Amino acid sequence: MSSTPDSVSGPAHPGWRIERIDALRGLALMGILQVNIQSFTWGAGEPLGYLSRPPGAVESVLYFVQAAFIQGKFYPIFAFLFGVGIALQTRKLRQRKYHDAPAVASTYRRRLMFLLVLGIGHGVFLYCGDVLTAYAICALAFVSFAPTRLRSLPAFCLWSGAAAVLSIFLPVVLAGVLDLDSAGSEIPPSIVRAHDIYCYGGFLAQLRQRWIDELWQQIASIPTFWPQVIALIALGSLAGRLGWLEHPGRHRVVWRRAWAIGLAVGLPTALLGAAMSYVRTRDLPGAEGGWDQVVLGTSSVLAAAYVAAAMYAFDQPWGRMARRWFASAGRMSLSNYLCQSVLMGVLLSGWGLGLGANASRAQLATLALLIFIAQVALSNRLLENFQQGPIEALWRRWTYRIVRSHR
């Protein structure tokens, strides 16, 4: 969904928050929902769902735009910000001198264990496309094995980045080595059955299917998705320690390079990968491990250009209103992320209103935008009276209660 959402602040002071970081989380939250809502009733299938047969012009254009500019472009922002959060939170713990370094690490692991349990519950009971579980496990691996010295961190970023690049090619390599031929002109029967269960079945009837889909997705993501998340967390940790987002004006060269690399690599691969993905999904929806996935995976670099553009826009007079608007949703991004899954279930699922059975791609995209606008308005209202969202407050109490008890 969904780096997931991770607060920048430590044990409790609203002035510690960095609005542009919250705004980036809000922006990513909006993009993640646009992808999740398309696949919600399909289970462990295509990230953007499947095309109707034959797809109309609106359906075709919208699929291409979503594949090129949304799919795979916003989870890197969440994972990157997760790494930034690790750097800022552990730094504030050390500054307050609650404990020594091992105790600080233990406190942060406690925070991640909460996220892991929450992610498992989210994936089993609400949405099988959960990302919290993978983020929690990858972050646990990062805080356990990443170097603590700043001068060693860039090398770790390079090595983890190399592993992430290799993981993009892994599905095609395995398909070639194992001589897998799963191409088919029809949507796989297992996906069709899952779609029927999610669209027409009750909540209890969906539990078994969702558990199977969630387990399959998590296992399949270990060699392909996890290396990318670890690399992005490492890069975010480096950015957090060097102040790239806290003081973007001091790091204009970094953001100019992020913009240039994001466009030079991400834009052409996004356009090409979207075209390839559209043709495969339209003509061979049963095919897996195609080169379109490799090209689209590479196009995730476009997220770097998105972040660089946001860093510039959020600090301009004309962009500050947008920054405040997105920041309200991003400040309670974990609560909003989980709420999105609840709302998708209520509106689209068989145990709710069942709108997912007949909704078009355009209708789902519009619904996602309306949900996000409503979340921004509600977040603004809630934050007028509270420092955090409800899940963030519970998360913080669980994380820091041992710290407080030893003060």
Radius of gyration: 21 Å
Strand content: under 5%
Counted up, domains total 1
User: What is the number of helical segments per DSSP (H or I, 4+ residues)?
Assistant: 16
Secondary-structure content class: mainly alpha
- Identify the overall geometry: globular
- Low-confidence spans: 1-15, 403-407
Largest sheet: none
Distance between the termini: 36 Å
Q: Quick check: average pLDDT?
A: 87
In N-to-C order, the SSE pattern is HHHHHHHHHHHHHHHH
Helicity range: over 70%
Number of strands: 0
Description:
By secondary structure, the chain is mainly alpha-helical. The chain has one domain. The chain is built from 16 helices and no strands. α4 runs antiparallel to α16. The N terminus and C terminus are likely disordered.
Task: List key phrases describing it.
407 residues, mainly alpha, 16 helices, disordered N terminus, disordered C terminus
Task: Give the helix/strand layout.
Elements: H1 19-39, H2 57-69, H3 75-96, H4 101-125, H5 132-145, H6 153-177, H7 189-200, H8 203-224, H9 226-242, H10 252-283, H11 291-298, H12 302-313, H13 320-331, H14 333-348, H15 361-383, H16 390-405
Helix pairs in contact: 1-3, 1-13, 1-14, 1-15, 2-10, 3-4, 3-9, 4-5, 4-16, 5-9, 6-9, 6-11, 10-11, 10-12, 13-15
Explain briefly what this protein structure is:
The protein is an all-alpha fold and about 400 residues long. It has one domain (about 15-405).
